[in-house]
Design goal:
CATH architecture of the largest domain: Orthogonal Bundle
Largest sheet: none
Order of helices and strands: HHHHHHHHHHH
CATH class of the largest domain: Mainly Alpha
Strand content: under 5%
Radius of gyration: 16 Å
CATH topology of the largest domain: 434 Repressor (Amino-terminal Domain)
């Protein structure tokens, strides 16, 4: 999947959904309990939803806009990966890869580029990750990040 093409469409999908519901930018920002300037950036810049929106905010944005998180990010809700992966499974996969590669948490965190100690101890901490972080962790664990997005509870 071409990342740049996917990311460029996210702001348009978000804006279209908001407008089709008759919501203002301010209303969506208030529903997310975030500053309107932040929300306007999400609709204006393709990388914002991938780099500044936590998975918990992405889920909330999906509820507000009546879109699945995957649809916000990549469109095509019917093109979902086969199956879903929960945070607990992702955490276990990371731990397995660490063991296979004889890496401790610090070395694995450095390799991934994200702190892993909290998510290994409490997989629910993945809610605080943004999509870039999720993609990096999933790459390390050799898991399809879209399967994790598809597994987010609605």
């Amino acid at each position: 999947m071409d990342r740049s093409k996917t990311e460029e469409g996210a702001p348009e999908r978000i804006r279209r959904a908001r407008e089709s519901l008759g919501l203002s930018e301010k209303q969506v920002a208030e529903a997310l309990q975030l500053p309107i300037a932040w929300y306007c950036d999400v609709e204006a810049y393709p990388w914002e939803v991938f780099s500044t929106v936590s998975l918990s905010r992405l889920q909330l944005l999906g509820r507000v806009l009546r879109l699945e998180p995957r649809e916000i990010l990549v469109g095509d809700p019917d093109g979902s990966p086969t199956g879903t992966i929960a945070f607990k499974e992702l955490s276990a996969a990371v731990a397995r890869k660490m063991a296979e590669r004889s890496l401790d948490v610090q070395a694995a965190s450095e390799r991934v580029g994200w702190e892993l100690s909290e998510v290994l101890g409490d997989p629910e901490k993945f809610w605080d990750f943004n999509i870039e972080g999720l993609r990096d962790v999933c790459g390390f664990a050799e898991i399809d990040w879209l399967a994790v997005v598809a597994g987010l509870p609605q």
